Amino acid sequence: MVASSAISYTRIYKSQAEREHLAAAFGLNHASSALFGPAPQLQTVAGFTVFKTSMTLMVLGAIWGLLTSTRLLRGKKTLVVGSCC
Length: 85
Hints:
Blueprint: H1 2-12, H2 16-28, H3 30-36, H4 45-73
Helix pairs in contact: 1-4
């Protein structure tokens, strides 16, 4: 995932002007800043890769936490022996 993110970044954003535009677009997006925090140094391949990887790990961690808490807090089913239907 990390390697593909770095390769795709260099292929999509070839010039420094395109990279500056990407950083400005993420900087103006308050929703992504509120969810994932500020995105520093998106003008570099390493900065973009770290931001995208951490964003993916945060989403996966949140889903994992929800599934774990649901499993732990779910009530146990009781089986009554001899009852019909």
